[in-house]
C-alpha cells in the first residue's frame, strides 16, 4: 500500500454509529496504519476541497466520484479489503494542496 492507492475499506461514519464499505484513497501511511480519504459518487455534495474523478482503468472506479479530502480516518492496514487502482501524480498533487488548505498549512 502506498500514497495514491485506492482501496476498498469499511469507512466509519462521522458519528461512529457504524461504517460502510467504500473506496478510499491513501494520502499518508506508516508501517502499521494508513490514513484515508473517502470517495463518494454523491456529486451534489461537492465541497471546495473535494476532487472529482472520472472512472478509468487506472483508478478502478466505476462511476464519476469525489475524493472527500475533508473526510479522513486513520485505520489499521489490515482493514483494507483490496486494491481498486491508483491516482495519477497530478491527482496526488491536488490532494496534497487540499490537505494543506484543510489543515491551514498554507
Report on this model:
The protein is mainly β and 106 residues long. The chain has a single domain, classed as SH3 type barrels (Roll), CATH 2.30.30.110. It has one helix and six strands, in the order E-E-E-E-E-E-H. The protein has one helix spanning 89-102, and strands at residues 5-12, 19-29, 33-40, 51-53, 65-76, 82-86. It has a six-stranded antiparallel beta sheet with strand order 4-5-3-2-1-6. Strand 1 and strand 2 form a beta hairpin.
What distance lies between the first and last C-alpha atoms, to the nearest angstrom? 28 Å
Largest sheet: 6 strands, antiparallel
- The SSE string, one letter per element, is EEEEEEH
- Derived structural class: mainly beta
- From the 3D coordinates, which CATH architecture would you assign? Roll
Instruction: Give the helix tally.
Output: 1
The overall strand count is 6
Label the overall shape: globular
Helix content: 10-25%
- Residue-averaged pLDDT: 93
Question: How many whole angstroms does the radius of gyration measure?
Answer: 13 Å
Number of domains: 1
Report the uncertain regions: none
CATH class, anyone? Mainly Beta
How large a portion of the residues is in β-strands, by DSSP E? Answer: 35-45%
Strand arrangement within the widest β-sheet reads 4-5-3-2-1-6
User: What name is given to the CATH topology?
Assistant: SH3 type barrels
Amino acid at each position: 500500500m502506498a500514497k495514491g492507492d485506492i482501496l476498498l475499506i469499511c469507512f466509519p461514519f462521522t458519528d461512529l454509529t457504524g461504517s460502510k464499505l467504500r473506496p478510499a484513497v491513501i494520502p499518508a501511511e506508516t508501517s502499521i496504519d494508513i490514513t484515508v480519504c473517502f470517495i463518494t459518487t454523491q456529486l451534489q455534495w461537492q465541497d471546495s476541497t473535494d476532487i472529482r474523478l472520472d472512472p478509468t482503468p487506472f483508478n478502478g472506479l466505476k462511476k464519476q466520484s469525489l475524493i472527500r479530502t475533508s473526510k479522513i480516518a486513520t485505520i489499521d492496514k489490515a482493514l483494507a479489503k483490496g486494491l481498486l487502482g491508483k491516482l495519477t501524480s497530478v491527482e496526488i498533487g491536488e490532494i496534497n494542496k487540499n490537505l494543506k488548505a484543510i489543515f491551514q498549512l498554507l
